[in-house]
Amino acid sequence: MSNTTDWINRAEKHVMKTYGRYPIVAQRGEGCRLWDIDGKSYLDFLAGVAVNNLGHCHPKVVAALQEQAGRLLHCSNFYHIPQQIELAEWLCDHSFADRAFFCNSGAEANEAAMKLVRKHSREKHGEDRFDVITALASFHGRTIGTISATGQEKVKAGFAPMVPGFKYIPFGDQEALRQAITPNICAVMLEPVQGEGGVNVPPPGYLKAVREICNEFDLLLVYDEVQVGCGRTGTLWAHQSEDAEPDIMTIAKALAGGPPIGAMLTTEALAKKLGPGSHGSTFGGNPLMCAAALAAMQTLIGDGVLDNCLAMSDYLCAQLEGLKSKYGFIKEVRGRGLIIGMELDIEGGELVTAAMEKGLLINCTVGKVLRFLPPLIVSRDEIDEAITILDEVLATVPTAD
Asked: Is 166 labeled as catalytic in the residue annotation?
């Protein structure tokens, strides 16, 4: 069997280098742990970047995949697909929505949302009302359309020209939103909690204020819950922390507990704007992915996972606050549910590498924010193990006397 070095050498020859990969060759996972090809175990507090909300290879998701794989893998959307219908029913029963469009990723879901808001606005207000307000430090995907919507210049570098029609405001500032509205604005698209932008949580009442402003100016409100939906913040949908339902919501990542699927959810009135031939996705809503997603979502709300998420959020935050009181270069611990950021006064990349070497997987976003995204099934003992490793790593940081 090939070892880590062999696999990395093969990757160097043929795999495009769009990721700065760590020297880990993943072989298997179970619960909150990942094992590499050499048998080393890692405590996974990244969870596939908020994909493995139920941990690695949850038995109910695996069973759903195995059963469906023996029946039907793919079927064209020219025909009705029972698993897709069941998943759409479940998502609509557990959200504001009446209809679901299925695709393969968060970026595709956001593209669908942007097409829908423009189609609606054109029909209702005319062809000049198509601009969308998004937030600085936001992240909405890697397609040309979604990097145009993203409020971070680093993801756009080298890919100009961008798709026109986006305007960016500071996240969490309702007055900035109000001032940014012009007759050309048709929608506002926000992450209820920003993930890639540094785990930024808006002030209380912000989402409700945004909803009211959108109502006042007849704007559509789109929530990008690709990273923070599906239980990550302790509620099924992140916006449920406030009474502020959207017109459109996009989800992906954890929707199927590991396998790739995305969805755009919306109301009956808006769904009518996208008729036959106006949008599509060859693999979107295929039987295999929908079977996995239905199993994952039923498990999420049926097995006490959300309660565990909230309890472990309190515990993990308390432990991280303890480290903050110990190390002066930790500026802030913030987050909601089990998406938690620890902002530092120093660069965090080397700390991520050091933690990995000791068996803890986390990552660093926007340079100085350590991001913790453990599976929602994480235990106190696993959090204690992670904190012990993190403490050992932080203790190596030189401090000025």
From this structure: no
